[in-house]
Structure to design on (1227 residues):
């Protein structure tokens, strides 16, 4: 029987940690170097930076709304609902048809507030239905399975929904009608902001406040938190687990549906694949904020939105990389990878990715 | 020098002190039982020794090596293997494969050796197989023959426990840590296993530490008994000494009586 | 892992048996609703219409109708199936109830379809549902206007009844019937291959006899195929067991000669296949082979080691781009113009490196995080290849062109027919590597890690090392796929390396059965080969993949041709339930005996534990 020497052991332990440290330093150097050289070059004026930040804030708010769905489902069931991006897309898509109709009958611009509310309700309702259906069909029967099984089903559900929408509604990109009331900008506290962005930021804030109140204050919210904490004990305490889980999916769906409409008002386009990228980014936001943590998802979304909007230009252009906007998605994915490597519990994380140390 | 020496280790779980400045040692060739009421920190002690948790303070010296900071697989390769309180086999692998995994740390064939099917690799594979069957043969005919290629999950509860011990033996350990090896067994099986633990030491030369609730087993095999309560060692000695120790009776039996009331 | 309580075997008495549960009509009605929704869905999303272009039996049955009516047929068959025989229950009796269940499904499906047609002709849905066209409605009513509605309902009802009726047949007949139906449909669809097969084998005279020329079998051809397939399932398939038995009885020497002749036969078949099938089908087979290669690689990562990698395409891209840069004279930055074989070691090196780069950060991560991070890596790879930033090296969206053909000495592999051989060669290599590793120290460590990472570690398995090894082997195999893909196409573009490739490969592995090598082969032929041959399928490929992933996880998580491992794992629960039922029954029996009452026992209701 051969035994390795102890020195070899300690070296091996340090290997992984060493790689991580080198990576850490490397990332820090790249970020600082890129940022300082961009700022030193002074290509962008302060007002441009401010616009980027505001854009990022609006975008991040939408991510945050979607991220809530990921984080709540993760909190209660412990798996990543890969199909949540499609829940978001479905609201956006059905919302389009209603918006298009309202535009045709003249209400979209005739009575924009009412039109907005109608489409909001429709897209929230659609997303909620899709989320609840997916839970019922694809996840509930698998609740006791190893975690990888519902993850695979959720990938299946994601592709099914995408291509079902493609088959039913066509593959073409659909353009939301323009809402005149939202064109142009307003000046708030001396800062010029696009009206659309004001709407998005205000709406996101209201939704989040409502959600926070719901989860923290209502009976159902408490039931959900109890189930997330410990299913068996919650069941013993008389909480209806199925109902708590369905409610979680429904709330996630509502938030995603609202996010769908807001996203559509900013980007005014939707097609069957529209859910994929925002979905992945919202997941990144959820991880960034600390998955399972509702406030974390809100924070993570906003941070990610700003990083994604400001980051490529701030860091990459300073490094002399041409066309940094092409690498916007790369930045988002890199943030995801880096967060998972360096701080898997996220900014406000309660849970570790894995308790091993 | 003692084979295993635990020097003043402590472990906190979120403010709750699971192990509190525990000293503990095992001589070569000894059978030591660790007993104590539920939640006394017995399994935590095993988890600290085998590297699943890291102690907050203290050292664990095994065979001249400090185990603190080593990973579980490294500790196992130094010659210290364990079983689990809730039987944790590789249920979808065969009985033989389960034990063969135990030999992983003692063998070396890499990917290229395997793909090229080098003589070295084939010999080693044969060695692994042979060693695994040897370990299983220790339990008589229970786990060999047609059982070898059955998946682990079809085994009865007692056989699962036996298979777990065989898997630990296959790692080539000097010291076996058995976590409640007789839990869930009927009296006959318990008696048999008690005898077997003795044979493990006498015939195979293992040093053994076991956590046990069944006092007949503890009485039957232990050279020495260590009693834990609230993560501290409250008594140590032969079974007889410990059984009449007042603190033990108070902590252990006293609380038990309260619980059952 | 729940413990199975020991059950005394002698306790099973013959006299007391619980009544068998009956075919549930309520369940049939629910399934009928599902069938109705599915039928309406495949109509509304354009599948029926798109598939109607292709005939299966010329002038009689198009693929569109086949799809539409297979829905009630199959679901009726499922609804009419008796519940499984449980320990301690009587065997269920077949009877009219089976047929009634089938009829219910057929009726409800018909109702849904009729309502759908009525709604679609009353309201113009086309603005929203672009595929609900007048042509579709025409198809659904068989061109007969409102009279066609009766036909539609009747057809659906008939199919439901047929599905129910087949349940009354003995297993042997039932299998023969379904097998014959499946083969007739398949041979009808695969006209391209079969007709080419006739041509290649010099049996050209047969082709017009079987195929109508306008697509689809002739009615006579269909009948012949049906009869042959029926006889095959009826007479030959039941014998397979006997043959296996006979083979096992043979002396070792004869076994060896049987094996040898099987290998020789297989080699001949493989050697002749592309020649006979011609360039078009060979092209498809090449693609199948490349996906198969990747499937085998991902099977090691996901099936053996249990690491869900959603960015597998990144390794495929590494292989393709490394090959392109090293061999193509048109490589933008640096073109050493190596030969394929000289480049291969560098491809392996690059892939291994990529495996380490992706593997290292995720070493300590739990399964689902790993999935998302690998997905992120896959997308990062594609976006970087596409970016202007790295355009000087990878050529941006224009990719790298002019990759020379593969050659061994004087032999140059130019056509798809030629390329078939090296691709098969690499597939065999990958299969050998999988098989060899599976039954080795490393393979066992992978499986142990998949089963219980913490215990594997406590048994001396270095998780870090073994995970990296899984990533590296998987990456290298995928890079071979990429290298072959690059030389086969002659160019590489970033959009060949989208997420959809990763998903496709994952579906192959899962549908084939995690950890099962033959399963991956069959899965690839069906899921990549068929859509490539039939353009209409291509459109709905990912829809089908999504459905398959869900259905496989719900009903057959072990895959279609599984390894034993997963079957055990996933049916364990059933074993436990059986044990529970047995125990419960024993208890009841003991009670009944204690009360010495002979009355009917209440049926046991299994509860969720």
């Amino acid at each position: 029987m051969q035994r390795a020497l102890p020195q070899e052991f300690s070296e091996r332990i340090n290997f992984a940690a060493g790689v991580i440290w080198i990576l850490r330093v490397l990332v820090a150097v790249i970020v600082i170097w890129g940022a300082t050289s961009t700022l030193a070059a002074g290509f962008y004026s302060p007002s441009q930076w401010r616009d980027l930040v505001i854009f990022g804030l609006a975008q991040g708010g939408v991510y945050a709304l979607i991220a809530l769905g990921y984080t709540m489902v993760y909190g209660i069931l412990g798996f990543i609902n890969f199909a949540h991006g499609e829940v978001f897309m479905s609201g956006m898509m059905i919302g389009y048809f209603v918006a298009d109709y309202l535009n045709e009958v003249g209400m979209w611009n005739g009575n924009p507030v009412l039109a907005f509310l109608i489409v909001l309700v429709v897209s929230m309702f659609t997303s909620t239905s899709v989320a609840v259906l997916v839970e019922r069909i694809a996840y509930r029967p698998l609740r006791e399975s190893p975690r990888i099984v519902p993850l695979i089903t959720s990938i299946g559900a994601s592709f099914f929904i995408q291509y079902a929408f493609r088959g039913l509604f066509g593959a073409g990109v659909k353009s939301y009608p323009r809402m005149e009331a939202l064109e142009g900008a307003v000046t708030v506290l001396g800062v010029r902001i696009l009206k659309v962005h004001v709407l998005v930021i205000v709406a996101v804030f209201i939704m989040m406040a409502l959600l926070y109140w719901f989860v923290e204050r209502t009976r159902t919210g408490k039931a959900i938190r109890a189930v997330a904490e410990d299913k068996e004990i919650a069941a013993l305490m008389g909480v209806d687990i199925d109902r708590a889980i369905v409610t979680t999916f429904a709330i996630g769906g509502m938030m995603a549906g609202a996010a769908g409409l807001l996203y559509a008002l900013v980007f005014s386009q939707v097609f069957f694949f529209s859910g994929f990228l925002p979905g992945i980014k919202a997941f990144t936001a959820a991880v960034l904020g600390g998955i399972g943590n509702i406030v974390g998802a809100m924070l993570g979304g906003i941070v990610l939105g700003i990083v994604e909007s400001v980051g490529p230009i701030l860091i990459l252009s300073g490094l002399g990389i041409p066309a940094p906007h092409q690498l916007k998605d790369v930045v988002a994915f890199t943030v995801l990878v880096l967060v998972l490597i360096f701080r898997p519990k996220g900014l406000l994380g309660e849970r570790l990715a894995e308790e091993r140390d | 020098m003692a084979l295993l020496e635990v020097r003043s280790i402590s472990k906190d779980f979120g403010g709750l002190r699971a192990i509190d400045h525990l000293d503990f040692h095992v001589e070569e060739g000894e059978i030591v039982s660790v007993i104590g009421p539920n939640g006394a920190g017995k399994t935590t002690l095993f988890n600290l020794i085998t590297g699943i948790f890291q102690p907050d303070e203290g050292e664990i010296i095994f065979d001249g090596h400090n185990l603190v900071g080593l990973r579980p697989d490294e500790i196992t390769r130094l010659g210290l293997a364990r079983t689990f309180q809730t039987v944790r086999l590789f249920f979808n692998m065969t009985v033989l494969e389960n034990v063969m995994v135990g030999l992983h740390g003692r063998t070396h064939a890499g990917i290229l050796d395997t793909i090229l099917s080098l003589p070295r690799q084939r010999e080693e594979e044969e060695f692994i197989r042979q060693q695994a069957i040897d370990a299983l043969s220790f339990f008589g005919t229970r786990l060999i023959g047609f059982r070898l290629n059955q998946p682990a999950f079809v085994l009865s509860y007692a056989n699962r426990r036996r298979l777990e011990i065989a898997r630990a033996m296959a790692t080539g350990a000097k010291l076996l840590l058995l976590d409640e090896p007789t839990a869930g067994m009927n009296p006959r099986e318990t008696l048999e296993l008690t005898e077997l633990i003795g044979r493990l030491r006498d015939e195979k030369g293992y040093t053994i530490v076991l956590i046990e609730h069944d006092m007949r087993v503890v009485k039957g095999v232990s050279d020495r008994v260590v009693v834990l309560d609230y993560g501290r060692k409250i008594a140590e000695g032969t079974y007889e000494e410990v059984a009449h120790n007042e603190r033990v009776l108070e902590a252990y039996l006293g609380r038990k009586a309260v619980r059952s009331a | 892992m729940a413990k199975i309580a020991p059950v005394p075997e002698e306790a099973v008495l013959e006299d007391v048996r619980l009544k068998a549960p009956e075919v549930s009509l309520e369940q049939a009605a629910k399934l009928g609703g599902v069938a109705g929704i599915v039928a309406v869905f495949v109509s509304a999303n354009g599948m029926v219409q798109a598939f109607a272009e292709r005939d299966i039996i010329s002038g009689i049955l198009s693929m569109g109708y086949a799809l539409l009516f297979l829905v009630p047929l199959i679901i009726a068959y499922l609804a009419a199936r008796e519940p499984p025989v449980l320990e301690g229950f009587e065997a269920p009796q077949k009877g009219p109830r089976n047929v009634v269940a089938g009829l219910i499904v057929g009726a409800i499906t018909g109702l849904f379809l009729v309502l759908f047609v009525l709604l679609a002709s009353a309201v113009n849905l086309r603005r929203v549902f672009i595929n609900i066209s007048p042509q579709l409605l025409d198809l659904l009513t068989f061109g007969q206007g409102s009279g066609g509605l009766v036909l539609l309902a009747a057809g659906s009802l008939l199919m439901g009844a047929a599905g129910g009726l087949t349940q009354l047949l003995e297993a042997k007949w039932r299998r023969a019937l379904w097998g014959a139906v499946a083969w007739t449909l398949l041979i009808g669809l695969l006209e391209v291959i079969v007709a080419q097969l006739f041509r290649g084998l010099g049996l050209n005279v047969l082709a017009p006899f079987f195929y109508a020329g306008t697509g689809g079998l002739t009615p006579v051809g269909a009948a012949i195929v049906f009869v042959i397939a029926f006889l095959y399932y009826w007479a030959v398939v039941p014998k397979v067991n006997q043959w296996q038995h006979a083979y096992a009885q043979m002396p070792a020497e004869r076994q060896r000669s049987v094996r040898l002749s099987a290998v020789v036969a297989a080699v001949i078949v493989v050697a002749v296949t592309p020649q006979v099938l011609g360039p078009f089908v060979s092209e498809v087979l090449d693609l199948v082979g490349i996906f198969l290669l990747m499937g085998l690689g991902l099977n090691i990562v996901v099936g053996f080691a249990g690491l869900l990698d959603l960015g597998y395409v990144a390794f495929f891209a590494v292989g393709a781009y490394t090959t392109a840069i090293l061999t193509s004279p048109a490589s933008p930055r640096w073109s050493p113009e190596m030969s394929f074989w000289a480049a291969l070691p560098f491809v392996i090196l690059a892939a291994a490196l990529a495996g380490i780069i992706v593997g290292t950060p995720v070493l300590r991560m739990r399964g689902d995080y790993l999935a998302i991070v690998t997905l992120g890596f896959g997308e990062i790879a594609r976006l970087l290849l596409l970016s202007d930033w790295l355009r000087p090296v990878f050529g941006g969206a224009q990719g790298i062109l002019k990759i020379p053909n593969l050659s061994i000495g004087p032999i140059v592999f130019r056509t798809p027919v030629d390329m078939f051989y090296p691709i098969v060669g690499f597939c065999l290599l990958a299969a050998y590597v999988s098989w060899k590793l599976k039954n080795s120290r490393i393979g066992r460590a992978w499986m142990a890690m998949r089963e219980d990472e913490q215990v594997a570690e406590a048994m001396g398995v270095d998780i870090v090392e073994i995970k990296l090894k899984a990533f590296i082997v998987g990456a290298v195999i995928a890079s071979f796929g990429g290298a072959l893909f690059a030389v086969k196409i002659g160019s590489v573009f970033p959009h060949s390396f989208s997420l959809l490739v990763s998903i496709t490969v994952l579906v192959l592995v899962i549908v084939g059965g995690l950890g099962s090598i033959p399963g991956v082969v069959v899965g690839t032929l069906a899921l990549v080969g068929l859509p490539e041959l039939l353009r209409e399928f291509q459109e709905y490929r990912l829809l089908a993949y999504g459905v398959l992933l869900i259905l496989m996880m719900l009903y057959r998580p072990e895959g279609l041709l599984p390894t034993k491992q997963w079957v055990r794992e996933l049916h364990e629960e059933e074993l436990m339930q059986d044990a529970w039922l047995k125990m419960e029954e024993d208890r009841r029996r003991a009670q009944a005996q204690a009360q010495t009452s002979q009355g009917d026992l209440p049926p046991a209701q299994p509860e969720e534990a």
